[in-house]
Amino acid sequence: MRSFSCWRATRSADALLVAIDSxxxxxxxxxxxxxxxxxxxxxxxxxxxxxxxxxxxxxxDVAPVILAAHRNNYEILTMLLKQDVALPKPHAxxxxxxxxxxxxxxxxxRHSRFRLDIYxxxxxxxxxxxxEEDPILRAFELSADLKELSLVEVExxxxxxxxxxxxKMFAKDLLAQARNSRELEVILNHTxxxxxxDKRGLxxxxxxLSRLKLAIKYNQKEFVSQSNCQQFLNTVWFGQMSGYRRKxxxxxxxxxxxxxxxxxxxxxxxxxxxxxxxxxxxHTPFMKFIIHGASYFTFLLLLxxxxxxxxxxxxxxxxxxxxxxxxxxxxxxxxxxxxDIKRLWYxxxxxxxxxxxxxxxxxxxxxxxxxxxxxxxxxNKFHDFADRKDWDAFHPTLVAEGLFAxxxxxxxxxxxxxxxxxxxxxxxxxxxxxMLQDFGKFLGMFLLVLFSFTIxxxxxxxxxxxxxxxxxxxxxxxxxxxNDTFHSFIGTCFALFWYIFSLAHVAIFVTRFSYGEExxxxxxxxxxGTYNVxxxxxxxxxxxxxLHKSFQLIAxxxxxxxxxxxxxxWLSYFDDKCTLPPPFNIIPxxxxxxxxxxxxxxxxxxxxxxxxxRRQNSLKEWRNLKQKRDENYQKVMCCLVHRYLTSMxxxxxxxxxxxxxxxxxxxQDLSKFRNEIRDLLGFRTSKYAMFYPRN
Length: 695
Hints:
Its main location: membrane. By secondary structure, the chain is an all-alpha fold. It folds into 4 domains: 2-220, no CATH class; 235-414, no CATH class; 434-568, no CATH class; 616-691. Helices cover 69% and strands 0% of the residues. The chain is globular.
């Protein structure tokens, strides 16, 4: 009797799987209602016994959910979840629990594929909508987990990357169901429970765009570049200057030039009256971007003037004093450093260093600080005059000039990030950034080859004859080239590097001092010939192919990549943390002073009885506002899910209708073709064809 019940349960489970696979909703409903009930959930011991069984298979309370999720059938998943079917919970890749160890020992391939099947189930849009209160957040987190899994389990990398792409597209399609700006505002400003809340912004009903920042953090390019999201960002970006986009090109240029010329006056106006109508216009992200850009261009102008006002009389001064323009530059540098410190404080170290713009700014400001610090040290320590050729190689003034030159290069390269706002130059700037990453990968291979040939040539020529006539020249820069170039490791590196650009002649590799060195010259020629083939012909062509692939990859997704990069740049101007540009941001504004006094008074009053009551009331008000926002978010999310399901059903119906129409057309075409063939062959298709003679 027990074997019969087991056989019946097995047949019922198999029938349920077939019904789910065929997506027959009625049959699934009947089978679920007549499904034998299990007494209890299996324990670890029972699961271990099943795993050790040669006929081991997945438990039947999990397989139907996985199969229905693979089919992405919303109705069947709803029925299964109503039956309290257990949802699969995958273990980590490196999990060493008893169950995972037993599965790995029994069949590692089956265990890996079972994990992949579970993630296929969890990545199902229908399952996410049914089981998650915040489907967008779940899609973000799941895509990040799948991307990490693709780097760990490289054997199934394509499968995990495809699932991650599916989650990203689901979040994008869900956002596309928003029909007005109010719904977009609720979605993009929603803050999850584990994110820090801006209480002041919540009470003042400011836009924090927490969900959009989270999308950028999870690298959700499809979500950020979606049309609805970009339209909302445009509205916030221009703010009270929404009419700027509809102006003619000449008026746009005049507006930008006017703001760029009078930016110090505008900064002072905002510093004095930040809450006025004029101050609110300056506070818009678009105006902040222009004012900050004008301030940075002024800083670059001061750098150019620095070389023009250079005093030739102080050329041989070992410790020159700082000029007026030096103090102006120091003010700007302090302002830029203060801006980076504020951004680092509010964003955190990890998020701050993820932006290449912040990394470049950090290096540039550090170089400027080191430059002026060395100048002050040189001025306090050295007061003599001497020719520069007699100075020590690491004299503070010389080191400061070298650091200052390198910082100037970085200062102008920082303008590349302003190209992101342009639809023409932005994709080129993104392509250049991707190419630099590929060049870093190529550099690892090139340095290995360079090091290998450098060691060989140095060992070949380091015991050779040293010419006394060339003691004042170094390496390939000598007029009479010889093997003295390879007597040092650094000299060999320089020679091999410049050989790529045809600045080192092959004669330096094969020069002989006597007939006894003919074999040595031959070996040198073979080494340099091999180097020429490996580096000049193979590796350089490989680099060109890598750069072309990177450019083509960006060009194929140009619109998405550019909009995502532009959104990251725009978000840095949306908050009110860094409204004023350098050097005005180092001046304490009345708004900052009022906030400090208000915070101090609240802290003092919080220790009194009235202050405690007032604080409890404010906390209660804040909780009510947070609860109201969460309720609005749930209402909007329900609407988006309903519209998403409706659009899915419409697509399926249109596909089915198109399939039926195609079948009918195909049937008619086949019928016509059959009649034409019969007529051509001389057959009568009528039922009286037998009474007619054949031609």
